[in-house]
């Protein structure tokens, strides 16, 4: 890929989605944009860039930026964290609230596997302390295609086998004639999906008890990470917490959040580290 | 080092699976059908078995039932690995004593995920 073409597309990814793509990973651009290039009939990335510059269509540019974001996900990724959310965090949050309602946001949830994993745990292992509670899971992603795939809840041969035991697969999914596996109505009932760019304000999504944003920030430029973290922090309910992926930290990035005292990888509003939610 | 017996009548599948499983730090042995696998197990019971369904001489299901009838000793974890991937076949494999099920074709990620699922890694 020519430098000029790489620079145009890397810049587009940075401005549109906050994604940082180093030159050494130029192959990611070709791989991630291949479906769009095929659909539009572009013979090369040069053609695609030429079209972007000449048409200047904001929707098309946004679609390209979204397509350049990593879609890597799987069922039950970092399952200990999900287990802890179910067994410790949510009961503590429920106890602290008087609404009987719990809201969880998977920010950058790609094609929905993580949200459905929590939904599976709610079906299979609901703690007594959560009985009767209304647990609402929202998963958002910048990519329209990923969001739609998550909403449809149909997974192919490879995706369905990564992270999901055969017992849970046969219990919660039905094999369709197409060979895809479709999530049960019960699983889908806990989860809703929306397309959302984390660089933009999330005020319209409401406030959340738990925000799970894993392996999203690590693919972003520092400036983008700071504004995403600010946006996430603004959507935390008092006493709520944010969970990041393993090895993802916020030190030096924001003053709005601080590490939760007893939950490694979790962050709470600054000055509240000893609050009920983190006491889990 | 843990041991894994790969049971499949396809040399290609055995070779591909062996490479992946060796990368997971297993000592790998191979068998081309259920009868050969049963002899190998009686000789030395492995920690894990990756098991195909359709094979000559003795198929995977008959092997598994025979294996689970064997008296005492170590009970290996059995991961079925088959092209027969409808719910009926999967349930039959589980009822017969399989611990996990991989739907063919598979890749290294799937195999690793399934081995992790049953606590092999």
What can you see in these coordinates?
The complex is a heterodimer of chains A (280) and B (121). Chain A has helices at residues 3-17, 26-40, 45-55, 58-67, 79-96, 113-124, 144-152, 157-160, 166-172, 185-190, 222-234, and strands at residues 101-107, 134-141, 154-155, 173-175, 181-183, 191-195, 208-213, 236-244, 257-259, 266-269. Chain A is α/β, with parallel strands linked by helices and 280 residues long. Chain A folds into 2 domains: 3-67; 79-279, 3-Layer(aba) Sandwich (Rossmann fold). In chain A, a hairpin with a 5-residue loop joins strand 4 (173-175) and strand 5. The longest helix of chain A has 18 residues, at 79-96. Chain A is globular. Residues 276-280 of chain A have low confidence and may be disordered. By secondary structure, chain B is an alpha/beta fold. Chain B has helices spanning 11-23, 34-43, 60-69, 87-95, 108-117; strands at residues 2-7, 26-31, 48-51, 77-82, 100-103. A 5-stranded parallel sheet of chain B has the order 2-1-3-4-5, sandwiched between helices. Classes of the chains: A alpha/beta (280), B alpha/beta (121).
Question: In a nutshell, what does this entry contain?
Answer:
Chain A has 280 residues and is of the alpha/beta class. Chain A has eleven helices and ten strands.
List keywords for this structure.
heterodimer; A: 280 residues; alpha/beta; Rossmann fold; 2 domains; 7-stranded mixed sheet; 3-stranded antiparallel sheet; 11 helices; 10 strands; disordered C terminus; B: 121 residues; 5-stranded parallel sheet; 43% helix; globular
């Amino acid at each position: 890929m020519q430098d000029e073409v790489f620079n145009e597309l890397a810049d587009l990814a940075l401005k549109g989605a906050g994604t940082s793509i180093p030159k050494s990973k130029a192959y990611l651009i070709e791989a991630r944009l291949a479906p769009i290039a095929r659909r539009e009939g572009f013979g090369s990335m040069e053609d695609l860039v030429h079209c972007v510059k000449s048409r200047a269509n904001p929707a098309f540019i946004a679609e390209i930026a979204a397509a350049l974001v990593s879609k890597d996900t799987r069922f039950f990724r970092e399952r200990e964290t999900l287990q802890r959310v179910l067994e410790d965090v949510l009961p503590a949050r429920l106890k602290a609230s008087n609404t009987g309602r719990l809201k969880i946001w998977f920010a950058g949830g790609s094609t929905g596997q993580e949200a459905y994993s929590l939904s599976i745990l709610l079906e299979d292992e609901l703690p007594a302390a959560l009985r009767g509670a209304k647990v609402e899971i929202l998963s958002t992603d910048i990519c329209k295609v990923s969001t739609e795939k998550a909403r449809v809840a149909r997974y192919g041969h490879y995706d369905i086998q990564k992270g999901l035991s055969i017992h849970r697969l046969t219990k919660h999914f039905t094999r369709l004639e197409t060979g895809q596996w479709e999530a049960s109505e019960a699983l889908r009932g806990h989860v809703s999906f929306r397309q959302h760019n984390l660089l933009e304000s999330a005020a319209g999504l409401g406030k959340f008890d738990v925000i799970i944003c894993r392996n999203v920030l690590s693919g972003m430029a520092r400036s983008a990470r700071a504004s995403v973290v600010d946006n996430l922090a603004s959507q935390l309910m008092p006493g709520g917490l944010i969970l990041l992926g393993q090895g993802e930290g916020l030190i030096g990035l924001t003053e709005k959040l601080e590490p939760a005292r007893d939950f490694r990888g979790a962050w709470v509003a600054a000055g509240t580290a000893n609050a009920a939610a983190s006491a889990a | 080092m843990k041991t894994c017996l790969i049971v499949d009548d396809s040399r290609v599948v055995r070779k591909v699976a062996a490479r992946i499983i060796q990368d997971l730090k297993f000592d790998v042995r191979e068998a081309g059908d259920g009868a050969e696998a049963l002899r190998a197990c009686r000789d030395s019971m492995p920690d894990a078995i990756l098991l195909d369904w359709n094979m000559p001489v003795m198929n995977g299901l008959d092997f598994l039932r025979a294996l689970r009838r064997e008296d005492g000793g170590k009970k290996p974890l059995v991961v079925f690995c088959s092209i027969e991937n409808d719910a009926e076949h999967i349930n039959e494999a589980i009822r017969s004593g399989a611990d996990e099920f991989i739907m063919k074709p598979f890749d290294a990620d799937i195999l690793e995920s399934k081995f992790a699922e049953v606590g092999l890694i």
